[in-house]
């Protein structure tokens, strides 16, 4: 497992091509995600797969989200926003449920819910890597747009966090150096 973790790297969706994962592999990816720590067994996250026949709707949401936040966006910028929907062979949106409803007393705080989603994402990424795929997470300002929230049915108590992109890597890069534990570990004194 350590070798798998050491070899896994972020792969830009621009470098992901067909084939992507098949139905059985996708099921395995989500089974890996389901092993994430989950205080209270809330499953405070969900994934929405964007199948190929729905990419045009995602492309339009990206374009309109850009126009909403920047009415002066050029046609080139708008088209670049649209193209993001077509990059990886397999795409899913990761959504965190930060509370259960408006009256929720935060029995499980939002931070713990986000950590659970982060663990689910890492498990999914590691599973994709172990299958021989490249993968990466993408986000950006469109994540908060009403266009994207509406398309994916993101509820008021939820947050669209990132897209998961999976496919076959073209032009794999060398693994980036990892930080030494001394850089991020200290001891209470």
Name its key features:
189 residues, single chain, 6 helices, 37% helix, NADH Oxidase, alpha+beta, NADP, five-stranded antiparallel β-sheet
Task: Describe what this molecule looks like in 3D.
The protein has 189 residues and is of the alpha+beta class. The protein has one domain: NADH Oxidase (3-Layer(aba) Sandwich), CATH 3.40.109. 37% of the residues lie in helices and 17% in strands. It is built from six helices and five strands. It has helices at 2-7, 23-33, 55-69, 75-83, 110-130, 146-152, and strands at residues 16-17, 45-50, 90-97, 134-138, 158-169. Strands 1, 2, 3, 4 and 5 form a five-stranded antiparallel beta sheet that branches. Helix 2 (23-33) runs antiparallel to helix 5 (110-130), helix 3 (55-69) packs antiparallel against helix 4 and helix 3 packs antiparallel against helix 6 (146-152). The longest helix is centred in the middle third of the chain and has 21 residues, at 110-130. The chain starts with a helix and ends in a 20-residue tail after the last strand. 29% of the residues are buried. The mean pLDDT is 93.
């Amino acid at each position: 497992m350590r070798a798998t973790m050491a070899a896994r790297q972020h792969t830009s969706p621009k470098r992901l091509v067909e084939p992507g994962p098949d139905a059985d592999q996708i099921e395995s990816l989500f089974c890996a995600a389901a092993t994430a720590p989950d205080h209270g067994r809330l499953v405070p996250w969900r994934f929405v797969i964007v199948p190929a026949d729905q990419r045009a709707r995602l492309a339009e949401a990206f374009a309109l989200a850009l126009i909403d936040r920047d009415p002066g966006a050029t046609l080139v910028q708008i088209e670049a926003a649209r193209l993001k929907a077509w990059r990886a062979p397999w795409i899913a949106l990761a959504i965190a449920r930060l509370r259960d409803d408006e009256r929720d007393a935060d029995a499980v705080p939002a931070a713990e819910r986000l950590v659970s989603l982060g663990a689910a994402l890492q498990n999914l990424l590691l599973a994709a890597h172990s299958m021989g795929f490249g993968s990466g997470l993408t986000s950006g300002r469109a994540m908060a747009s009403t266009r994207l929230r509406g398309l994916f049915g993101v509820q008021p108590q939820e947050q669209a966090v990132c897209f998961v992109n999976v496919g076959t890597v073209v032009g794999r890069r060398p693994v980036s150096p990892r930080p030494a534990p001394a850089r991020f570990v200290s001891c209470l004194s």
